[in-house]
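Subject: Protein record for review, amino acid sequence with backbone structure tokens
Concerning: The relation between a protein's sequence and the shape of its backbone.
How to read it: Take the token row as a discrete description of the fold.
Enclosed: The protein record, placed directly beneath this head.
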Amino acid sequence: MTSLFKLVLDEERTLRPAFILERGFSARVFPDHIDRNEFFSFAARDQNETAESVAIHHAEYGAEEETLIRNDVSSAWKAVFELSHEDIVVEFAGRNLFLWLPAGEHMYVAFGSSAIIEALGDLNDLNREFDEYVEESGLTEQGKAFLRDCSRKYCL
């Protein structure tokens, strides 16, 4: 059976838009690295309580993936923070909500149920915020071009 990590990410460890589209999911790109408050907000999304458990699928480039299961959001956040140098796919139990946290990149992607993703905010506003971040990021032109390409590719 193919793992979620390999279904979601391609050989170069970039998100597969086909995975999202084939499942009828939506996706949004967010600027910068995820912070604790954002992580907790995603964990509580579409629920009165936070997720019961969180699966953290992770791997360093060139290494095999591993999966950690954390039974509370605080310990899940701690694990994500400690693994931030690796590529990570976060899966919130009991709902169709995932995060792709690519190693070393100045962005992350939330994807899953269209209802959950669309509730994150107006796509035009989110895109405008992302574009402003890119312009003010201080990244090289190549880095900015990469982020713009991610925005086009993953806002589904």
Summary: Residues 89 and 111 are 10 Å apart (CA to CA). The beta strands are 26-31, 54-59, 66-70, 87-92, 97-101, 107-112.
